[in-house]
Amino acid sequence: MTSPVSFSALRTFVEVGRQGSIKRAARELNVTPGAVSQQVKALESRFGVQLLERGNREVRLSAPGLRLFGKIATNFEQIDAAVQLLEDRRPGPQTLVVSTVPSFAACWLTPRLGRFTVLHPQIEVEIETSVQLADLTNGPADMAIRHGSGNYPGFDVVRLFAPRLVAVGSPSLLADGPLSSPGDCLRYPLLQDRDRADWTTWLEANGAKPTRSAAKGPSYADDALLIQGAIAGQGLAIVRDVYAARALEAGSIVLAIDASVSTPAGYFVIVRPDRITIPKIAAFRQWIMHEAGVA
């Protein structure tokens, strides 16, 4: 009688197929790379075929490996999802991992997060920041908040708001008061976004002709840094109004001129449809929609 195939070995093989690396699979499974290799070799010995094509650092599935992976990977995803669902519905403290971009976390989300904690003290929120969209299928993030077009196929997507671009500077730099026209901004040092495009966009939308100086000046990776540069008096900055709101309220910066420009992209909260009813995710999703004024 043929002995049954090891469930653990199959689970290990699927993770290697997902990761394309024995080392990364070992990290995900919290075991050693040697243990992963041993499990895969045991499967290869059991079936009498080579499942992996091994390179120096990466591995690829062989033709038999691809066939096996295609047959069983979805089943393991369903098992993982079912187990995670039970974990997420357990009473007691819950951890919610939210992925978003650094500026949104620093300028909009973090200052409001205390209100969520008061409402849901049993949910411990972990904020992960990255400019890349989180892997909501296999990664640790439970949900994501992203700036873009809202086109995220296969996910539940809710639009929170669309920001506007405004010109700001320090009170000392603008001590004589607001400027008379958008073109007057070109008389000041300008702080640039990563792509050096926002000043040109803002000036053209407000009927001013950009000069070569509109793309000159120090460049910052995100709006949070731009705002800090403006607060320090380094120059005028074009930033999204939702990021500048708290600094404007505090008087750390002021509007250079009362002129704003709409942006085509918006901020969206993104959740896997099969996880939308999990209490911790549903609670945070409802709360952030309320904070954004869409619930």
General description of the model:
- The chain is an alpha/beta fold and 295 residues long.
- The protein has 3 domains: 7-88, Winged helix-like DNA-binding domain superfamily/Winged helix DNA-binding domain (Arc Repressor Mutant, subunit A); 94-162 and 266-291, D-Maltodextrin-Binding Protein, domain 2 (3-Layer(aba) Sandwich), CATH 3.40.190; 164-262, D-Maltodextrin-Binding Protein, domain 2.
- The protein contains 10 helices and 11 strands.
- It has helices at residues 7-19, 22-29, 33-47, 63-88, 102-109, 113-119, 198-205, 223-231, 241-250, 279-291; strands at 52-54, 59-61, 94-100, 123-129, 143-148, 156-161, 164-169, 190-191, 236-240, 254-262, 266-271.
- Strands 4-3-5-11-6 form a 5-stranded mixed β-sheet. It has a 4-stranded mixed β-sheet with strand order 8-9-7-10, sandwiched between helices.
- A hairpin with a 4-residue loop joins strand 1 (52-54) and strand 2.
Write the layout of secondary structure elements.
Elements: H1 7-19, H2 22-29, H3 33-47, E1 52-54, E2 59-61, H4 63-88, E3 94-100, H5 102-109, H6 113-119, E4 123-129, E5 143-148, E6 156-161, E7 164-169, E8 190-191, H7 198-205, H8 223-231, E9 236-240, H9 241-250, E10 254-262, E11 266-271, H10 279-291
Parallel strand pairs: 3-4, 3-5, 8-9
Antiparallel strand pairs: 1-2, 5-11, 6-11, 7-9, 7-10
Helix pairs in contact: 1-2, 1-3, 1-4, 2-3, 5-9
